[in-house]
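Please check this record.
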Amino acid sequence: MTPQDIDAFFARLAARDPEPRSELSYVNPYTLLVAVVLSAQATDAGVNRATGPLFAKVTTPAGMLALGEEALREHIKTIGLFNTKAKNVMALSEILVREHGGAVPRDRESLERLPGVGRKTANVVLNVAFGEPTIAVDTHIFRVANRTGMAPGRTPEEVERGLLQVVPEAWRLHAHHWLILHGRYICKARRPDCFRCPVHDLCAYPDKTPGPPAPAGPVPVL
């Protein structure tokens, strides 16, 4: 994709959704951090079902420590890997209370030192909670960046570096969400909906899918 194509790509997505938002439910930076940690290998909808009742009770690291690991496991037992995730949430909550006064740090290094927090999670928190122009490369963004030719790469970090180089500064703050939503609902893994894609003419994907088949049966006479 040319720089002009990439600029037009985001301009069209922005016209359709000027203020994209995370589909994870959260109350504050701490609950966002917890939700993102829980979302690894899980759907946002599944996480939201579990965290709705949880975040009605707990919105701070101190509150999570008071709740306790056993009660946390009960809240999140419908989420994959819930035992490990519960341990990580309790451990990171303890560190936030002990080392950060109960606040979520705004720097990548401190975030990535927290249990269960990798580069992608740190990027989400920095972007969503603190308005930093980071791009968290999940499976959707990895697929879209490679499929469209916008920022091909073999690893998430390689794709992230590529995107930060080619996404115009004007679009960088919301690029993370535009790309995720585009990959989740249109540029899907098994069969992208190219026939309803607003940027299909800008995309370098060679195997664009045709439209849905016409309905069977005779055409009604009007």
Observations:
- The chain has a mean pLDDT of 93.
- The chain has eleven helices and no strands.
- The CA atoms of residues 140 and 183 lie 5 Å apart.
- The radius of gyration is 20 Å.
